[in-house]
Amino acid sequence: MSAPTLDRSATGSPDEATLQEQFDATIAADRRIEPRDWMPEGYRKTLVRQVAQHAHSEIIGMQPEGDWLLAAPSLRRKAVLLAKVQDEAGHGLYLYSAAETLGADRADLTDKLIEGRQKYSSIFNYPTPAYADVGVIGWLVDGAAICNQVPLCRSSYGPYARAMIRVCKEESFHQRQGYELLMTMMRGTDEQRAMVQDAVDRWWWPSLMMFGPPDDESPNTAQSMAWGIKRHTNDELRQRFVDMTVPQAQALGVTLPDPDLAWDESSGHWRFGAIDWAEFARVLAGDGPKNAERIARRRAARDDNAWVVEAATAYARKHERGAA
Ligand code: BYC
């Protein structure tokens, strides 16, 4: 449901205090803020930060799996992977469009990403040396993304929440294709099983880091939850992911690389070991295994394809003039 539209006719423009009151009432009633509505500058900035970072993650996230497009082991696997990687491009496009409804400019956001002034998810700075990585990304990375993004379908900003609905449907397909790929490999040879286990060992901890810093070190969570942008804290979603994933690992027949992982009867949750937050900080600071390569490739894509943007812009202008 959208926010009540302000009546600006009787007394001219309402003052800032009235607008703030109206905004607070919309949030308190759990209704959506739409692009036409007044919003506090902090709310707009927080959304641009999160939505842009999310969009960048989708686009940069095409690279690790994209590396396997030319080496997929069969035509079927290639078609599935191609569809998945194309979906990620689509997610990036919806999200850049959502950011544009907040007044952001897409080319400017891309420049900020390339210049290191905006972030993208830490997870995409890890390498994909084996084909099993494609399956593990689908299972763990898309699985973590679903845990994080399903609640965002109820985010208070309308265009972001609506984009998330379609994104989550597609992520479910991604997660299943990954799990199915891994099940096939686990039914294969000893070498294939070893390849899956090695990929799980490499991706497990970075997947837990995707949810962001622990709650007591997350500067943005409290305000983002008060505004209804985020619906759960980082630690709540991380726990949900672990609880969901451990039985899947058991069904698959792989071991999660955490000696402290144990079922806690009293809380009804899986307890897990300490996350290496120093590694997370290093990756965020640009010092992960693949940071430089990911950004160099994104920069080359922007520069090499600038002529397409120029040609499309000139074509659109010509048609606008014709219509006028
Ligand atoms: N990586 O206060 P916090 C996909 C930053 S792609 C990097 O907790 P917040 C897929 C955070 O930005 C899906 N940075 O922040 C695609 C902040 O720094 P700034 C990606 C991280 O925003 C292709 C600082 O740390 N999903 O599914 O309240 C193939 C403090 O954090 C990370 C999304 O983007 C990280 N992991 O919460 C396959 C979800 N974590 O900005 C799959 C949308 C934290 O102040 N985003 N930081 O400089 C969110 O839900 C939230 O932004 C986060 C962080 C939970 C990630």
Automatic annotation (TrEMBL):
InterPro entries per record: Aromatic_CoA_ox/epox, Ferritin-like, Ferritin-like_SF, PaaA, PaaA_PaaC
Keyword list, A-Z: Oxidoreductase
Molecular function in Gene Ontology: phenylacetyl-CoA 1,2-epoxidase activity
Pfam families cross-referenced by the UniProt entry: PaaA_PaaC (PF05138)
EC number per UniProt: 1.14.13.149
SUPFAM superfamilies to which the protein is assigned, alphabetical: Ferritin-like (SSF47240)
Stated name of the protein: 1,2-phenylacetyl-CoA epoxidase subunit A
